[in-house]
Amino acid sequence: MAVLNVLEYPDPALRVTASEVSEFGHALKKLVADMWETMYLSKGVGLAAPQVGKPVRLFVADWEGNRRVVVNPGIVEADGAERSDEGCLSFPGIYERVTRPAKIRIVYRDENGKRHDETAEGYLARVMSHETDHLDGKLLIDNLSALKRAFIRKKMGKKPRGR
Ligand SMILES: [Zn+2]
Asked: Where do the domains of the chain lie?
C-alpha cells in the first residue's frame, strides 16, 4: 500500500467530472487499498478518487465503523434536509455547516463489481452525498454562501504550498 497525495483546493483536478469505472481488477483494488491508507492517515471519514488525482467514480468512506467502497454511485432518492458541520480533506482546517438530505437511496458497485442498493441516513448519508459530489467536481465550498466562499478562497489561497 502507499499513501497518496491529497489535492487541496483550488487544485483544478478537483473540478473534473470523473469517468465510470469499467474494470474491477487489480488496479482498482490497489487504488482502493491506497485510498484507505491515505484516508485513515489523514483522519478523514471519506475520500474520493479525484482528491488523489484519479478521475474515476470511486470513493471510500468509514463513518463510525460503517465502511463502504463505492464505485459508480447514483443517488436515486433523497429525502428531508439536515444541517450539520462538515469538513473535507481538500479543505484542511475548514468546517462549515452544510444542508444535505437526511436520507438517501444510493446504488453503486463495490470493488468486486457487486451491486448494492442502500438506504443511508444521518451522517453516513451526508458523507456519501459529499463524496458523490466530488465525482462531479462539486466541492464543499459550492454549498456555502458567497461571503463564506470568498473567505475560504482567501484563506486557502494564502496557505503556503507544501508540494
Ligand atoms: Zn471532500
From this structure: 12-158
pLDDT tens-digit map of 105-151: 999 999 999 999 999 999 999 999 999 999 999 999 999 999 999 99
One CATH from 3.90.190.20, 3.90.1280.20, 3.40.50.10580, 3.90.45.10 for 12-158: 3.90.45.10
Ligand 1 midpoint to CA 25 (Å): 25
Q: Is the pTM of this model over 0.85?
A: yes
pLDDT exceeds cutoff 60 at 41:
yes
Q: How far is residue 19 from each of residues 37, 55, 75, 81, 98, measured CA to CA in Å?
A: 23, 6, 16, 29, 26
66 CA → ligand 1 middle, Å: 17
Distance of CA 61 from the midpoint of ligand 1 (Å) = 11
Residue 58 in 3-state DSSP? strand
